Amino acid sequence: MTDNEGFGNDLVWLSVLVQRRYAQICADHDLTSTQATLLCVLKDQPQGMGDLAQLLGVAKNALSGLVDRIERRGLVQRETPEHDRRAVTLSTTALGKKIVGALYADVAERMPDITSTLPADEQHQFANSVARITAPAHRTALLEHNTNHPKADEQIAG
Amino acid sequence: MTDNEGFGNDLVWLSVLVQRRYAQICADHDLTSTQATLLCVLKDQPQGMGDLAQLLGVAKNALSGLVDRIERRGLVQRETPEHDRRAVTLSTTALGKKIVGALYADVAERMPDITSTLPADEQHQFANSVARITAPAHRTALLEHNTNHPKADEQIAG
DNA sequence: TATTGTTATACTCTATAACTATA
DNA sequence: TATAGTTATAGAGTATAACAATA
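Structure tokens for the assembled complex are given below, as produced in the milestone run.
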């Protein structure tokens, strides 16, 4: 306990350092952090507005404006699925895919420098821990919308 | 290299998780993340506007508005030092100190849960690494303004 | 009636540029 | 002239509440 007292606040500071660098990298690709994260979540598969809002941790109405701006720039596109004309499915355009791919690579290259003050083996161990902490979040990103929509399971089962 | 490929992006995800929880804790104390971080930086000693802007990673003019809002709520106070009437020294009020103290404790209590998916010994090692990564940032917070103002050193020396 | 998404409104945060007061 | 900070303006992000269209 004693030598762990500042851990929570250290975590916040680490995230500030990461976010600062992330914002810089995003800016180099003409994106805000929020826009970049939206593109990343959308990178591998389309999402509905509701699910996407949940994944990003924002309210649906906030997402509408977010999508307006990034759609205006031609990086994502809205589509209305035939089976439910209330819904909107969001996906990245070819340009969006290209940009998010470059961003991803740039983050992978420039972000690890954050841990450069650690000895090599500790860096390795740290990367491992970070991967294990964030793994559930990745799974959530893929499964959460199924959890909330039993019908989707039925469709798969049927 | 191979098993490290996603490290940079994992770090970003970790920081998103931390920031989300941090925002929630701050909101429970009626603060935005930015306001909370400003109070934390100001917690132990007063700062000038310029130095504070640098510590927070924002431009001076952005800081003016930030301080306006949080001063209006009585959590910080502006003062003009006699030796340079252009300058403004910012410090926390008694109320500000009380609130930032409670916030700090709450963060320390609720944030470590982020690593709950790791086994105990790995949590310990992880906390250790985070402390070592953020330590230079803490030092910077305390020393940076001296670096930029040689006169301060002279005053101490004299 | 319930659900999906959007609009209206308001506030915080941030950047650029122009400005004021002091040194 | 240079420096410390503020004001003006604009845009992004976010929340609450009211709304429209569809199921």
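Residues 32, 34-35, 58-59, 61-62, 65-66, 69, 84-87 of chain A lie near DNA strand D (CB under 10 Å from a C1'). The longest strand of chain A covers residues 76-79. Further analysis is deferred to the final report.
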